Structure formats: structure tokens, C-alpha cells
């Protein structure tokens, strides 16, 4: 059943890090803002894929230098109020990260959105977009009650899979699909049943994995055991040792990879139980979905380039900082990191958030314009808060005046506490 048309100033698709930052940033300009999410909760990869670490809030170095503030910092404060330790730690890769609790993250997103008068549409999918004269006029949402048309002056694609961009006809620099070379996806899990004080010994685990892989039908590709870290609040472990290839968009590919990942999680658990102290380990939770790194990328008006990352380039039209190295997963179980040059961060230009050929569409999170190497840096959640915040403010300004002048955009972001 179709319902009456709803009207907003800004509509944001996807309620992960980029989406929440976009929605809050837009709402704080006075724009009536709708945030659309296909799940029954917000949080993006942190909550729907168990990616329980924020990367990109801090630059690499002996001391933690924070590079993302604004809405991202306010989300961290919401987590802190719920008892999560938001102090950064050094990850296995040698870079600063913030560990998360998934349930606290869900509630923190709820509170941040509702306290800023963001209207939320959970359990909703965008199924079409109506475009006229290079502008999106409306989108159609589907929920269990049927279809509803939503009109707005400007839109933000924070969907991760570039869903709105594809529906609106934005040209793609990476189209995805079965023939594309994509970074593999990962399937993190939560592990319980490990007593306090038990430490994960990587050398012991590597030996257990090597023994297992000698005869395993489905070997563990991260030979050292992957990422294993204690989580805040619950004292459970976060374990990321499963990497699989998928196009990330078709039901055929995703169905195959999800079922395979769950099978691997149970088989890998048997190997983990041979590690001293992990004898009674059990699987607390997986997914709702596998953690997808890469599918499709829309073309923007100023894509972030590899040279921006390598040289740590600064720009007069910068609207946020990228400080996570270019993390490129070349194949399942194999990743490399390319450090950022200059002062350890680079500027994301305003044009990277502006979709090519669709004037009132902004891009946020891992949907922003970037080449294949730079994408490995900008896709992470900490940086997504920065790009999303700017995308939301830019969309709000575009909905009011038809354009988002860079000086006003930067001024508004600074007034909202962002670092540009």
C-alpha cells in the first residue's frame, strides 16, 4: 500500500558512522532531516558486522593525536557515558584504535540522533530514486507496510554499497560485481567463556593453526590467529580471523559467503579451544552480516587520490582529515599498510563528497570519491564520521541555497566542533 508523500530538507541513506554524522550535522543547521536504515538499529559495521574497533580517529605515532572531532567526538562521549573506555589503544597493526561494545554503540547512536531531532526510519530500504534535471527529487522507501515516497532538497548516500548513487545514475569508478577485484570481506565474532587474566599467545595459536591447516578442508588463512582483543564492558574477546571473497551486493554471493563464514566460525572455535585458557570458549555472537570492505564507488567531483595519502596533502577546500593508513587487503588473509606522509594526515576535499552529475547528492563514509589505494584509508569508521559530518552540512546548505559555498561549509563545521 502506498502512503502519502513525506517532505524533508535532507534525507540520509544509511545509519553507520557516516550516516549518523551527516544526519546530526544537517539537523544542527535547522534542516528537517530523515535518517534511513535497513536494520532495526544504527551503528553500521560496528553493530551489524561486529567490527568492534574505531579506526581513523587518531594519527599514527608514539602519542595519540586525535584527528576527528565534531559529531564523532560526541558519539564517543555517548559511549563513555555508557561505561565504554574510549581511550585509544595500539592495535596489532601498530595504529591507534578505540575498542567498542556493540550494544552500547547501538544505544549511543539512538541517543545522538534523537537528542538532535533527527527523524529515524529503521527497517526501511530505498528501492528507487526519481531524478530530474540532474537533481534527485524523491526516493521511494519500502517497509512491511508498503511503499512511501520521500521528497527532499538534498540527499546523502551513506549506504556503504552506494545504493542511492546507483539508483540515481551516478557514474561509478568501481562497479563491483563478480568480475571486479575487491578487497575481501571479514567475519569477526565475539568469544566468551575465557577467564580473567588469560592472555592470547600468538605463537601458541600459530602452531595450532599450522597443525589444523595440514588437514583442514577449510584452512584458517590468518596464520597468526588474526586479531584477538579484549572488549570493554563484557570482557569478551573480539576475534577476526575469517576472510572471504564476495561481491557484497548480490544475494547469490552474499548467501554463499554468509553460510560459509558461519561454518568456519564453528570450526575455528574448536582450534581456539586447544589454546590454554580458552578450553571453555564459546561463540557469543556473529553478524547480522559479514563485514564488507568494498563493493562500488561513485565518481565524485574531486576523488581522493593515492598521492594525497602518500604525501599527506593539505587543501584550502579541506573539510575533514584522513589519518588511517591506506589499508589494502589484497587477498583473504593478506593485508598491507601504507603510511600517510607529511604530518600524518591528509585533507579530504569538499568535492570528494559531491556526487558527479547529480547536483544535490552528497557522499559519506566509504561511499566518498576515492581511487583504489586512497579508498583503503578513507573507508574506515573514524574517518567516516568526518566525511559524513561534512556531507550532512553540505547537503543542508545545498537544500537551503542550491549550493554549498566552501567558506560557509568550513565555517559551519568549525562552529559544530569539527576539525578541518
UniProtKB/TrEMBL annotation:
Gene3D superfamilies xref list: FAD/NAD(P)-binding domain
Lineage here is: Bacteria, Pseudomonadati, Pseudomonadota, Alphaproteobacteria, Hyphomicrobiales
Q: Does the keyword 4Fe-4S apply?
A: yes
Sorted UniProt keywords: 4Fe-4S, Iron, Iron-sulfur, Metal-binding, Oxidoreductase
Q: What is the organism field in this record?
A: Aquamicrobium aerolatum DSM 21857
Q: Which InterPro entries match?
A: FAD/NAD-bd_sf, HdrA-like
Q: What is this protein called?
A: FAD dependent oxidoreductase
Query: What does the record give under GO molecular function?
Result: 4 iron, 4 sulfur cluster binding; metal ion binding; oxidoreductase activity
- Does the UniProt entry include the keyword Iron-sulfur? yes
Signal peptide as annotated in the record: none
Amino acid at each position: 500500500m502506498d502512503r502519502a508523500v513525506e517532505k524533508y530538507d535532507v534525507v540520509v541513506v544509511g545509519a553507520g558512522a557516516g550516516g549518523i554524522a551527516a544526519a546530526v550535522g544537517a539537523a544542527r543547521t535547522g534542516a528537517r532531516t530523515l535518517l534511513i536504515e535497513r536494520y532495526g538499529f544504527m551503528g553500521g559495521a560496528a553493530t551489524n558486522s561486529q567490527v568492534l574497533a574505531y579506526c581513523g580517529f587518531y594519527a599514527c605515532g608514539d602519542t595519540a593525536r586525535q584527528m576527528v572531532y565534531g559529531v564523532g567526538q560526541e558519539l564517543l562521549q555517548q559511549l563513555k557515558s555508557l561505561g565504554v573506555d574510549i581511550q585509544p589503544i595500539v592495535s596489532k597493526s601498530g595504529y591507534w584504535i578505540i575498542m567498542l561494545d556493540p550494544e552500547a554503540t547501538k544505544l549511543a547512536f539512538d541517543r545522538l540522533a534523537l537528542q538532535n531531532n533527527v527523524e529515524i526510519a529503521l527497517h526501511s530500504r530505498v528501492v528507487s530514486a526519481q531524478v530530474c534535471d540532474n537533481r534527485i527529487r524523491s526516493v521511494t522507501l519500502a517497509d512491511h507496510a508498503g511503499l512511501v515516497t520521500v521528497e527532499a532538497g538534498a540527499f546523502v548516500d551513506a549506504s556503504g554499497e552506494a545504493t542511492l548513487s546507483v539508483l540515481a545514475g551516478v557514474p561509478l569508478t568501481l562497479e563491483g560485481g563478480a568480475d571486479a577485484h575487491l578487497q575481501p570481506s571479514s567475519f569477526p565474532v565475539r568469544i566468551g567463556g575465557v577467564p580473567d587474566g588469560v592472555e592470547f599467545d600468538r605463537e601458541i595459536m600459530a602452531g595450532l593453526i599450522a597443525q589444523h591447516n595440514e588437514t583442514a578442508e577449510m584452512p584458517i588463512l590468518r596464520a597468526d590467529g588474526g586479531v584477538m582483543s579484549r572488549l570493554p564492558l563484557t570482557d569478551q574477546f573480539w576475534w577476526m580471523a575469517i576472510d572471504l571473497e564476495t561481491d557484497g551486493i548480490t544475494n547469490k554471493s552474499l548467501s554463499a559467503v554468509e553460510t560459509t563464514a558461519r561454518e568456519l566460525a564453528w570450526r575455528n572455535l574448536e582450534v581456539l579451544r586447544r589454546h590454554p585458557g580458552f578450553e571453555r570458549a564459546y561463540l557469543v555472537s556473529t553478524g547480522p552480516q559479514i563485514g564488507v570492505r568494498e563493493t562500488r564507488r561513485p565518481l565524485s567531483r574531486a576523488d581522493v587520490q593515492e598521492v594525497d595519502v602518500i604525501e599527506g596533502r593539505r587543501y584550502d577546500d579541506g573539510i575533514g582529515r584522513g589519518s588511517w593508513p591506506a589499508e589494502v587487503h589484497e587477498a583473504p588473509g593478506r593485508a598491507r599498510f601504507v603510511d600517510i606522509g607529511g604530518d600524518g594526515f591528509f585533507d579530504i576535499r569538499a568535492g570528494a563528497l559531491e556526487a558527479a552529475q547529480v547536483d544535490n547528492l552528497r557522499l559519506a563514509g566509504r561511499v566518498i570519491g576515492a581511487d583504489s589505494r586512497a579508498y583503503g584509508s578513507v573507508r574506515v569508521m573514524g574517518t567516516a564520521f568526518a566525511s559524513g559530518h561534512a556531507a550532512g552540512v553540505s547537503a543542508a546548505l545545498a537544500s537551503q541555497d542550491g549550493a554549498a559555498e566552501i567558506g560557509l561549509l568550513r565555517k559551519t563545521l568549525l562552529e559544530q566542533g569539527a576539525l578541518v
